[in-house]
Amino acid sequence: MKEADILIRNCIVLPMVSGEIIREGIIATKNDKIIYVGKKSKAPRLRAEKIIDGHGKVAMPGLVNCHTHLAMTLFRGIAEDQPLEKWLKETIWPLEAKLKPRDIYDGALLGCLEMIKSGTTTFADMYFHEDQVAKTVEKAGLRAVLAQGILEAGVPRRGEKMLQDSVSFTRKYKGYADGRVTVQLGPHSLYTCSLDMLAKVRQKASELNVGIHIHLAESEETVNETKQKHGLAEVELLERIGFLGSDVLAAHCIHLTEKEMRLLAQHNIKVSYNPVANMKIAQGTAKIKALDSVSFAVEKRWVYGYLGPNGAGKTTTTHASVDHVDLKTFFLTGARCALQLNNKEFKIPLLAYYEGMEDIPWSLPLKPQISQRNTSL
Ligand SMILES: [Zn+2]
C-alpha cells in the first residue's frame, strides 16, 4: 500500500507522453510531487488522506502564459477601440508613469489569482518594478519568467537607465522564490528601442546568460515605420545586429514576410501567440500554420503561448480573467471535441502548446509529462 496526500480518480488524463488518452485515470501526489499518474488498472494500491472524484474532468499539465504585463489588470476596460500607437501613447504610457511599486504589486497579485483560477501555472512577464511582480510570484506559489522592461521612446538616457535597472533585476532575482523565478532582459520593441540599445541588450543578455523578451511585428503601422526608417523588416534588422538567438522570446509576430519567418526558424526564436490581444486592436493574428511549416522545414521548433493575453488593458473589457478563462475553456472544449470526434486538426493548436514547452527552461518541472515530441490525440 502506497501512501499519498491526494488521490484524484476517475478523471481523463492527457499525459502528453504518448498518443494515448487515459480515460479512467488516477493521479496521486505526495509532498507536492506526483507519485503516480496513469491508468487505474495499472496503479499500485494507494491510500490517501484526501480523495477527489475527477469524473467528467480532464487533467493536464498547467498552462503557460508566454506573454503578459500582469499588473495591467489595473487598466482593465480602459481605452477601448484604440489602435496600438494611440492606445500606448495617449492612454497607457501616461498612466504607467504614475504607477507606484505598490500598485504593481496589487495588480500583479490580482493577475496571479486569476491565472491560478484558470489553471495557468507559469507566466512570462515584461513590465516595470518587476521586483514587485517577483514578490507576487513568491506569495502565489506560481512560476514565472520575469523581465524588467526597457523603453527608450526617443530618450537614449532613459533607455540606458532602464537597461541598467533591467540588468540589476536579473542579477538580484535570478532563481528567486526557491528557483521559481527565471529572469530575462525586456527591451520593449523595435519601435521603442534604438538599434544601438538592442545591440547592447543582446550583449548583456549573452554576458549574463539570460534570455530576452521582446514585442515583434505587432502592428502594421510600426512595422511599416521601421521599414521606412531602416530599409529592412524587423526580423532582418535584428539579424543584422546579431540580436537573434534561441534565448529570444518574441511576442505577437503577426506581420512577417516569409523571409522573416525563415530567419526566426533558423535562429530558433520562441514565438508567443497572443490572438486575443491582437484581435482587440484589430491587427490580425500570427500565421501559426505558416510559421509551423517553415519551422519544421528547417527542423526548428516553436513555442506557442496561447495564453499570451498581453496584459489586461489590451485584451477585453474584463480581460485577463476572461482571456484566461476563455482559453482554458478553449483547451478543455477542444480536448473534449478531440475525444468525441477524433478531430485530428485540433491537435495542432493544443499540442503545439505543449510540445514547444520542451525547449524552454521554465517548463522543466513539466518535462516528465511532455517528454515525447510526437504526441497526438
Ligand atoms: Zn505585450
Chain-averaged pLDDT: 77
The tally of domains stands at: 2
Summarize the biggest pleated sheet.
Answer: 7 strands, parallel
Order of helices and strands: EEEEEEHHEHEHHEHEHHEHEHHHHH
Provide an overview of this structure:
The protein has 377 residues and is α/β, with parallel strands linked by helices. The chain folds into two domains: 1-59, Urease, subunit C, domain 1, CATH 2.30.40; 63-327, Metal-dependent hydrolases (TIM Barrel, Alpha-Beta Barrel), CATH 3.20.20.140. The chain is 42% helix and 21% strand. The protein contains 14 helices and twelve strands. It has helices spanning 84-96, 101-118, 130-140, 156-173, 176-179, 195-208, 220-230, 234-240, 258-266, 275-280, 288-297, 319-341, 347-357, 367-370, and strands spanning 2-13, 22-30, 33-39, 46-53, 58-59, 63-68, 120-127, 143-150, 181-187, 211-216, 248-252, 270-272. The strands form two sheets. Strands 6-7-8-9-10-11-12 form a seven-stranded parallel beta sheet. Strands 1, 2, 3, 4 and 5 form a five-stranded mixed beta sheet that branches. Helix 9 packs across helix 11 (288-297). It is globular and about 70 Å long. The two termini are 33 Å apart. The protein binds zinc ion (ZN). The site of zinc ion has 5 residues, from loops.
